[in-house]
Amino acid sequence: MTNSIEEITGCDTILVIGSNTTETHPVISYRIRQAVANGAALIVADPRNIDLVKIATVHLPLRPGTDVALINGLANVIISNGLMDSSFISDRTENYEKFKQTVEKYSPEYVAKITGVKVEDLIEAAKIYAREGKASILYTMGITQHTTGTDNVLSLANLAMLTGNIGRPSTGVNPLRGQNNVQGACDMGALPNVYTAYQQVGDKKVMDQLSTTWQVKLSNKPGLQATDMFQAVLDGSIKGMYIMGENPILSDPNSSHVIKALEKLDFLVAQDIFMNETSAYADVILPAAAYAERYGTYTNTERRVQLSYPAVKAPGEARPDWQIITELGKKLGFPWNYKSAEEVFAEIAAVTPSYGGLSYKRLQSNSLQWPCPSPEHEGTCYLHKDIFARGKGLFSAVEYKKPAEEPDETYPFILTTGRHLFHYHTGTMSRRSKGLSRHRPEEFVQVSPQDGIALGLQDEDMIEITSRRGQVQAKVRLTDKVAPGTVFMTFHYRETATNLLTNDVHDPVAGIPELKVCAVNIRKLAR
Q1: Which residue range is the domain that position 502 belongs to?
Q2: How far apart are CA 307 and CA 359, in angstroms?
Q3: Rounded Cα gap, residues 474 and 495, in angstroms
Q4: In a domain, 281, yes or no
Q5: What pLDDT, in 10s, does the model give residues 62-110?
């Protein structure tokens, strides 16, 4: 997040797009509700009639996969009505004229045809977002999990810069990260093209510094994206795999493709706290300690680094991840002699500029937000206060592109996926809770009442959902939460493995698969 969670309550306007916040980030959703109670306007852009719509000033129910068209349409209205922040654009940005030229054709009428959003609602939302005050954008994987995910994010950055809603309290472009410590993992270089703090692979200065510190020669070639690894197994270029804390059989798109790759591997190591569908294929299981069984840090969605203490002892042979990796490194010939998580963190601070001023000693008294470059620095609540990291903010001229797969006669419905409140991700942890499972023991496919009538469906009828990649069976729930022509499923349930259906085509820049849009057919099954 460019800004902090606490700042949400101080917003005058909030645009929530591609985020079912009350169910996927319930704590943050409380801040949104507080802001609305304080008088903030709430714009919700989502294909479904999610819970936040009940308190929204305006709802923009766009068709799945049309985000760029919608955002360009908002920008068009803002520019046409002279509502942009001309001083901010002139002083702090570049490439505005090219961006302006691009969005000229995205009139409200043109955008309505693409997105299905009413012209008057689009105009109202644009004027609300661009009004004086502090406007914040909150988004999640409803924006990123598309073949145009990068374009979607660039479009949101355009919108914030267009109105000067960046670099101030209670503004910004704020991705709500989907899993605990996913922000920290990215900060630590768990991406194929960067080292810690997003230092680029191939940057000679960075590589020279790290090579000296680590006493190894580093490759200047980025690694494979996660979405490419399983294809590389099938192509024969990857023979072994090490999977930590992940269950790709349920979480990755086109699950049949993942299973074929796992079956072909010569060797698979799974490091996790529980057995799951993926670790069943492993040759070696390394039992890891859970969060309450180890001492270490987490970095949350607002860039806040927090120290976590063990509450209970790890069971059996389970160990903290750093110990497992250290011992493995020794067996592979590396002179790793870390004695504690604190020693590892000290090295992190030494090679990671944005973490340079952090230490366990400081974190014991207070959590801090990066960038925190020196021991005297108090951390950073919001980013881009006076200058962007690249200097001037760059407007991107982004055109709308259709999703990779659209409905047709054979597959007439759009499937979009997500989560619900009672379970988390692939259910490896949450489905072990009797209380949570009692609330939501099985999947219910959300179908609109209009489509239900056309298909002769009633609540809890069994249906078969089929895509070009697979098929699953589940019970149906008729609900106005989804629009006609759209169906919604979660991916929490192994018995209804939704990602057997989803499309593994991915964004060419970020490598994120298009989990939010694929074409499916529905067939009622006999009782």
Answers
A1: 413-524
A2: 10
A3: 9
A4: no
A5: 999 999 999 999 999 999 999 999 999 999 999 999 999 999 999 999 9
Q: What's the pLDDT at 370? A: 97
* Residue 425's pLDDT band (cuts 50, 70, 90): confident
Contacts of 97 (CB under 8 A, 6+ apart): none
The encoded tokens of residue 379 equal: 């951390």
Residue 243 domain flag: no
Strands (E), 321-388: 368-369
Edge-first strand order for the sheet with 267-272 is 240-244, 267-272, 284-287
**Percent of the chain residues topping a pLDDT of 70:** 100
- SS3 of residue 450 by DSSP: helix
Q: What is the pLDDT of residue 42?
A: 98
37-53, pLDDT tens digit by residue?
A: 999 999 999 999 999 99
3-state class of 109 per DSSP? Answer: helix
- What pTM value is reported for the model? 0.95
Please list, residue by residue across 251-288, b when 16 or more beta carbons sit within 10 angstroms of its beta carbon and e when fewer do.
bbbbbebbbebbeebeebbbbbbeebbbbebbeeebbb
Q: How many residues does the chain have?
A: 527
CATH of the domain at 440: 2.40.40.20
Return all residues near 386 (Cβ < 8 A) that are at least 6 apart.
167
Q: What is the pLDDT of residue 479?
A: 97
SS3 call for 368: strand
Distance CA 517, CA 422 (A): 23
CB atoms inside a 10 Å sphere around CB 250: 23
Token pair, residue 102, equals 């691009």
124: exposed, middle or buried (Cβ count in 10 Å: 0-12, 13-18, 19+): middle
Contact 50, 59 (CB under 8 A): no
**Residue 448 DSSP SS3:** coil
Instruction: Give the span between the Cα atoms of 362 and 305, in whole angstroms.
Output: 11
Preceding peptide of 371 cis, ω within 30°:
yes
Residue 21 has pLDDT above 80, yes or no: yes
Task: Supply the DSSP symbol for 181.
Answer: T
* 440: pLDDT strictly greater than 90: no
| Total domain count, the chain | 2
378: in domain = no
The answer to whether the bond into 484 is cis (omega within 30° of 0) is no
DSSP letter assigned to residue 10: G
391 within some domain = no
User: At residue 451, does pLDDT exceed 90?
Assistant: yes
92 CA to centre of own chain? 28
How many Cβ atoms sit within 10 Å of the Cβ of residue 328? Answer: 15
Lowest mean pLDDT: which of 40-44, 310-314, 358-362, 491-495? Answer: 491-495
- Going by pLDDT thresholds of 50, 70 and 90, the confidence category of residue 226 is confident
* pLDDT score of 467: 97
* Domain's final residue, options 176, 192, 225: 176
The last residue of a domain, from among 123, 142, 176:
176
